[in-house]
């Protein structure tokens, strides 16, 4: 009978030990999942930036083309100073450098 009592006493210990380790395993799993999700989010934001820069380049080229057509047709609106600013090409390198700079407001 003493063996049965020892085995019975051992079961709660193993259950306690297992239940003590479970939160550690779960928190590790959650952290790994969050890290993976953060990496995917970073990749998506990089892709969004590349797509936006390509769209900006295409829009700038279209504005230049429309401006030339307007000049050829003698349309007066083509001398708009805001249009000239919009026709300037965006330098992707400058945008990337600006993004890589630490935020000075947070310092």
Entry summary:
With 107 residues, the protein is mainly α. It has helices at residues 2-73, 81-86, 92-100.
Characterization of this structure:
The chain has 107 residues and is mainly α. 81% of the residues lie in helices and 0% in strands. The protein has 3 helices and no strands. It has helices at residues 2-73, 81-86, 92-100. It is rod-shaped. The mean pLDDT is 79.
Which features does this protein show?
mainly alpha, 3 helices, 81% helix
Structural class: mainly alpha
Fraction in helix: over 70%
Unreliable segments (pLDDT under 50, ≥5 consecutive)? none
Q: Measured on Cα atoms, how large is the radius of gyration?
A: 31 Å
Largest sheet: none
Topology:
Layout: H1 2-73, H2 81-86, H3 92-100
């Amino acid at each position: 009978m003493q063996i049965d009592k020892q085995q019975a006493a051992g079961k709660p210990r193993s259950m306690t030990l297992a239940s003590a380790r479970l939160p550690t395993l779960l928190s590790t799993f959650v952290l790994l999942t969050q890290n993976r999700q953060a990496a995917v989010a970073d990749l998506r934001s990089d892709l969004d930036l590349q797509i936006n820069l390509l769209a900006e380049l295409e829009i700038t080229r279209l504005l230049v083309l429309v401006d030339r057509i307007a000049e050829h047709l003698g349309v007066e609106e083509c001398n708009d100073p805001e249009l000239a600013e919009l026709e300037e090409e965006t330098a992707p390198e400058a945008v990337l450098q600006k993004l890589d700079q630490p935020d000075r407001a947070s310092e």
